[in-house]
Amino acid sequence: MKKTSILSYFFLGMILLFLLFPIYWMFVTSFKTNMQLYKIPPSWLPLSPTLGNYIELIKGKVFLTYYSNNFIVAFSASVMTTVVALLAGYSFSRFKVKGSNLILFGLLSTQMFPVIGRVIALYTVFKSMRLLNTRIGLAFALTAATLPFCTWLIKGFFDDIPKSIEEAANIDGCGRLMTLLRIIMPLTKSGLLAIGLYTFLLAWDDFLHCVTLITSDNLRTLSAGISMRYLGELSYDWALINTISVIGTVPMLLLFVFFQKYMVQGLTAGAVKA
């Protein structure tokens, strides 16, 4: 093996170690007690691993409430974003009207605004609509945050589908809606899966929207719940926090393991034209 190849693998290994070490340390810390965490020098392996942190979380109803709220909000936002982006992307792709390009760029321009600026506006609107402190209101906010990008992404899939397919379906007596549901949607399933996963990932990790729009503790999601309940002013329960982080990472890890191929395919499709 050439010396340059050995150096390349060495540097790649160092970078991989640097990136994976926080995940390893989080996992190891979840099996320690707080007394073991503050030992100097630290133990790189759990010498006497304990499941006490996991048992404490499972017994406590508060964590399970945060966890279930996270699933409800993330799943709701994913479904709403996928449905609206599907209809909007198809409309922009097939119906060319005056000002459609301007509307598309207007949608894209909303991604340039900082999240805190959008949250302030959403707070005012939701207050007048009585959607503050509700899970459905939080799902609406996350849908609004992810919809512009998802609409642009799925529109690219529709642009790549020949219109002759729809014309043939129309001749056979299939209406516009049935053509979309039975013919176009199966051809764009990788794109739909990509925007659904993209929205779920962003909604699962959301913090700012939940902290701003949710005030009741029983309606908070995982990120906001951790910061409000498990992070104190004077001391942190690091063992418990890392245990929560491990459990919160599991759904994301499973999604990447089982759907990574489809997500990458959906996000990169249409980027390179023949």
Write a brief caption for the model:
Helix content is 76%, strand content 0%. It has 13 helices and no strands. Helix 10 runs antiparallel to helix 13.
Could you list some keywords that capture this structure?
mainly alpha
Strand content: under 5%
Shape: globular
Low-confidence stretches: 270-274
Average predicted confidence as pLDDT: 85
Query: How many beta-strand runs?
Result: 0
H/E element order: HHHHHHHHHHHHH
Q: CATH topology, anyone?
A: MetI-like fold
What class would the helix/strand composition place it in? mainly alpha
Q: What separation lies between the terminal Cα atoms?
A: 37 Å
What is the helix tally?
13
